[in-house]
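Reopening this ticket.

The earlier resolution said the output was attached, but the attachment link was broken on my side. Pasting everything inline this time so it's all in one place.
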Amino acid sequence: MKKLLVLFHLCICLSVGCSSQTQHKDWAFKSIIWQHHVYEITTEHISNVGNTIGEITMSSDHEDSNKGGNETFSNLLPEGTILYEINGTNIKNAIAFKQGESDFLKANYRGDYGK
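Inline output:
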């Protein structure tokens, strides 16, 4: 009887310890990471866009997806989304991105990625 009880406890411990569930971190806000800078995506419409500065090359809703930080990354926007400078605004303050056919939205600088 003791052997059966020990075997039962061992099976329970092994099944709990070998669980394949993984937890993903959640982002604090919807963002763009461009040249190691983090920008928070807003719903503010922009009409004075300037030159293109890049495009989203990696997209994922898992926070640990861009560990290297070398990709132009977003946790909301799809790969291929074009990024723009905003005329009269330093890119350290904000950038714009194209949403749909002709709509441009603003993303505000929040800090350097990984700091």
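Reporter confirms the inline version is readable. The chain has one domain: 27-112. Residues 32 and 74 are 4 Å apart (CA to CA).
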